[in-house]
Each structure stands twice: as C-alpha cells, then as structure tokens.
From TrEMBL:
UniProt organism field: Cloeon dipterum
Gene3D superfamilies membership: 1.25.40.420, Potassium Channel Kv1.1, Chain A (3.30.710.10)
Pfam families referenced in this protein's UniProt entry, alphabetically: BACK, BTB
Name by which UniProt lists this protein: BTB domain-containing protein
Domain of life: Eukaryota
Lineage per the UniProt record: Eukaryota, Metazoa, Ecdysozoa, Arthropoda, Hexapoda
Span of domain BTB: 11-81
Length: 409
C-alpha cells in the first residue's frame, strides 16, 4: 500500500505492514506515467484532496517501489531478483510506465526453474508472451520447482495445473504429495492450521495425484506420516493399489496409472528371423507368441505399456482382438494383462497397450510375455530389424535397453 502527498514533493508511503516513506516529485511522476498525470493533476477524486492527504498505491513492496523510482528518475534498472521483477512489472503495467515494463520483462524472459512459478502466474495475467513456454520449464524441471521457495507462493490454481499435467519430471508421485502438504502447512490460515483446513485448500490438486502408480509400501508410509487423507480414503486407495483395480479409488480422485516421467516405450517386435525391413502378417494361425527375458541392473525399471506394430495404421480398418500377458516365472504368477479389442484407427492411432498400473521389473527375475490373438482377420505390421538380427527393447522410467536375438533375452 502506498501514498502520495500532493505538495511540491509528494511522499509515497509504501508497504502495508511496515510502510516506508518515499519523497517524490509530482512533475517527474506525471511525466513518466499518464496514470500518475491524471492522478496528480487530473480530475480523480485523489487529486482533489488536501495537499497533505496521501494517495494510496496498492500491490508493491518498498524494495520493488525503490527499484521502480530509480528508473523513473534516472532511467536506471538494476535488479537481479525475478520476484521483484514481477512486482515491478505489475506496477509498471498498471501505471503505464512503458520503458519500465520493457526493462522488467527482460528479466522475466528466461527464468530458472527455481524462479519460474511467479513468472508463469504473471504470464497468464499480463505478459504478452506464451505461458506455455514457462509451463514447459515446470514440466521439465519439476523436482527442482517443487523444492524452490517460490513454489510456496504459488496459487491454488497453479497447484492444480501442475498436478494435472501428464508429463512431469519426478521420480514418484510422492514428490507431489510432499510438496502439496508443505504448501498447505505454510498457506493455511494462521488461526486455523489443523489438517482439515490444510486439506481443504489443496483438495483439488491432491485429487490429481496418481496414487495408483505408488507401491503398497510407499503409500503405507504416507498413511503413517500424515492425516491429509481421511481414513476411508486411505483404505480405498490402498485397496486399489494392492488389488490392482482402480474401481476402489475414492470418488473424484484420478485413476490414471501412467507414470509422469516416461522416457520411452517397450518396443516389441513379435516376428522372428526377418533380417531386414519387410511387410508381414499376424493371423489366427500363429495365435500366440511367447518371449522370455531377464532384467539386470540396480536401477528401478517399470513397465507401463507394450507397443504392438500390428496396431499401427498399416492395419487401419481391420478388426483386432488380442492381449498381452506378463508373467513372473519365479515364482510363477500372472502380473498384469493389457488388451485391445476393436477396429484399428487411422485417425488417432495408439498402438500402445497400457497395463492397469506400472509393473516393477526386478533384477535377475525371469519374465515371460505372452501375446495372444483371438481374431482371424490378419493384421499387417511393418517390421524393422538390423543386419545382425537384433531388436532394442526400451523400458519406460529408465535408460535401460534390452537387445533381442531370437526369443531369449
């Protein structure tokens, strides 16, 4: 909050909690801004007050106002803070100080991940630039953004937008949950900081968290550490995870089982002994294909989907009825099944068969992938292999690659 006293040297009293007086000149302020000119010499009611009556200025801190006045008086803009640049930009935009708008915007063009939140929020309101540019920074540097001091100042709307994105650079949904809880603890009313009030202000964002991608023990640890979820919600989510069935999820919560940070797909070539590129057919006569493989390495590897080339547009218009079953052979047990039934589309081709939830592949454990075809209509598929008859399998959520030669991995 600020004031201007209308004598020869008006004062700006800036700041709501600890106001600071700034001694300024009416003519200089009026020359820099049409809004100030009308405010000080026009017919606004503020201009009709007694010369010592303060005129209010809203929405700028004393530090940011000082930066703005240095520019107004001496055309000097020296500011290294993105947060202050946002304040100055809003002030300059409102009072139509064109040169200052440009000077502040230069600081906001390429924010770092730790400073991107206020710039993104400002871009949706005032900045002419594309807000998508800043949203991409959030998406590609999510972990760093969530840990930044600026995230605590984010609006509820921004929280929901971030948690609703399909792609985020996070290791686990736990990062989102922890960031939301931290945000709620610091933004809940000072007189009402219980967990119920904290839940209310993050409810919409929390329901976009993909709890279904968590493991049972991960979610159990979360249940022990916070009461941000009700006891009923905890039970329903845990049932969904352990039973691998999203229908038990609480009402309003997302049932998505896809990881946010997916680096690729598992590329499956289900035909053997074709050394070069060619067209092939898959039909009922070869109704089942089995592939055995091992995963090695210490990094966590999750399987979220299988890509079948027979579902590409080369088979558009053909009916397909098939399933991919993933089995663990030690002990022997079914892990998940992904199905496709319908007509292959050329308009919106999605050849990926998604499992109900990500499957953790353990190092050294043999797995079997069975592809079953139930429809007699042949499906066409373009198959690519290199000269040494190998195919690369790329695993989501890791940099791991597996090379196929025959049916043994």
């Amino acid at each position: 909050m600020g004031h201007i006293y209308k004598n020869r040297t008006p004062f700006d009293t800036v700041g709501e909690e600890n106001p600071v007086d700034f001694k300024c000149h009416k003519l200089i302020l009026a020359r820099s801004s049409k809004v100030f000119a009308k405010l000080l010499f026009g017919h606004f009611k503020e201009a009709l007050h007694d010369k010592d009556t303060p005129i209010r200025i809203l929405g700028i801190s004393p530090t940011a106002f000082s930066i703005a006045m240095k520019y107004v008086y001496g055309n000097v803009y020296n500011n290294k803070s993105v947060s202050l640049a946002c304040e100055v930009y809003k002030f300059a935009h409102f009072y139509q100080i064109e040169g200052l708008v440009d000077a502040a915007f230069d600081k906001l063009k390429n924010p770092t991940p730790k400073d991107v939140i206020p710039v993104y929020e400002l871009s949706k309101l005032l900045i002419k630039g594309d807000a998508l540019k800043y949203l991409v920074i959030i998406r590609e540097n999510t972990s760093e953004v969530l840990k930044s001091p600026q995230f605590i100042k984010a609006s509820q709307e921004t929280l929901v937008e971030i948690c609703s994105l399909d792609r985020l650079k996070i290791k686990s949904e736990m990062e989102l949950v922890e960031a939301l809880i931290n945000w709620a603890e610091l933004n809940a009313s000072k007189t009402d900081r219980d967990e119920l009030s904290q839940r209310e202000i993050i409810d919409a964002a929390l329901k976009q968290v993909r709890f279904f991608t968590l493991k049972g023990d991960e979610f159990s640890e979360l249940c022990c550490s916070t009461n941000i979820l009700s006891e009923k919600e905890k039970l329903q989510i845990l049932m969904s995870i352990n039973l691998n069935n999203a229908k038990h999820m609480p009402y309003g919560f997302t049932v998505s089982s896809q990881f946010r940070d997916v680096k690729g797909h598992m590329l499956l070539d289900f035909m053997d002994n074709i050394p070069y590129s060619s067209d092939t057919k898959v039909s009922f006569e070869s109704s089942q294909q089995n592939f055995r493989f091992l995963v090695r390495g210490s990094d966590l590897k999750y399987l979220t989907s299988i890509r079948l080339y027979c579902l590409l547009e080369t088979s558009a218009g053909l009916e397909a009825d098939l399933a991919c079953n993933l089995w663990s052979t030690c002990p022997e047990e079914p892990l998940a099944i992904a199905k496709f039934r319908g007509v292959v589309s050329s308009a919106s081709v999605d050849p990926d068969l998604h499992f109900p939830r990500p499957i953790l592949l353990k190092s050294g454990v043999p797995y079997t992938l069975t592809i079953s075809y139930y429809h007699k209509t042949p499906l066409r598929s373009k198959i690519f292999k290199n000269a040494i008859n190998q195919v690369v399998w790329e695993f989501p959520h890791s940099d791991f690659k597996m090379y196929k030669s025959g049916n043994v991995f």
